[in-house]
Structures are given as structure tokens and as C-alpha cells.
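User: Sequence in, structure out. Go.
Assistant: Echoing your sequence, followed by the C-alpha cells.
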Amino acid sequence: MACAALLLGCSSMKPQDFADREPRLVIEEYFAGETEAWGIFQDRFGTLRRQFKVDIEGDWDGETLTLVEDFVYDDGETETRIWRIEKQDEHRYTGRADGVIGIAEGQAYGNALNWRYQFALKVGDDTWTVAFDDWMFLQSDGVLINRAEVTKFGIKIGEVTLMFRKPLETAERVSVISGIAAE
């Protein structure tokens, strides 16, 4: 519990700061079905260390949002991570996934979601316990922007940036912009 209190004190930004922002992010709705994402990892000096694409399949059964994330990294490595996320109330979520130590805790207000959790990160032949302070912001065009600060012992070791979109929505937007009728 002391770790959670320490993590909560790391950022001055609070999910409640976004309560009036639109569009409202409801993750069980946003992630239902197929979602695509592209991301990068930069070390604490801003050096790009890794790029990846993620194909996500989401299923909301009314109690649990299950996300199957299939990662393909720029070096050809692949990885699958399965999240099981439960809605606790209007604003709070908890989640579990391979690699997550304990329970991830999230709060959603307005267009923002903040996840905080510890993760067993493979670094070469070692595994480090790191903390994620993960922020997602839904944009009016359906794009979801995600930035996560990664720390070890309270010291920033890097940052993850992701962009999510829904494939069908994107195809419809491209068709309208280019003047091509969707079939």
C-alpha cells in the first residue's frame, strides 16, 4: 500500500482535472472490438529505443473488459499480453495482465484515463520492477493518445507513446477526406 501512495504522489496532474473534457472516454466502449495502435519507447535521454505495432481485440461482457494485445516490435519480436479489466464504479477500474505486479488501478474522468501499476520489465537477461504512470486522452476524431512515464525507484527511465484508432472509423474518415465512397 505504501508503494501505491508513493506512486500517487508522482504527478501533479489528476484525472479529475479532465472531468469536463469531451469526448468522454469509456474504455469498455472504446476498446470493444478491434483497435490498432502504434507506439515508441524512448529512454530518459529521449533516444528512440523501440517501435511497435499492436493489434487489440476487446470484449466487454458487462463486468470484465478482456483485451488481447498482439505486439510486433521493429526487430521482429512478437508478444501477446491479455488484460482483464473490471469497472469498479463510474470512474475507477482495476486490471490484471501478465507482467503486471499486483493490480493496476485506473481512474477515468472526461476524456482522460490514468493507469498506475508496477510491471516486471525484461531488460536483456534481467527483469526490472518498474512503475508506469500511464495517461490516455481521447480526441474528437476517435484517436486515443497514450503517454506513459516509466520509473524505477522513482527515477524516470523512459517514456512510452502510443496512438490508438479503430480500423473501421479510420477507413470511413479516409474515404470521406479523399472523396472515395466506402463500399
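User: And one key feature?
Assistant: The chain has one domain: 23-177.
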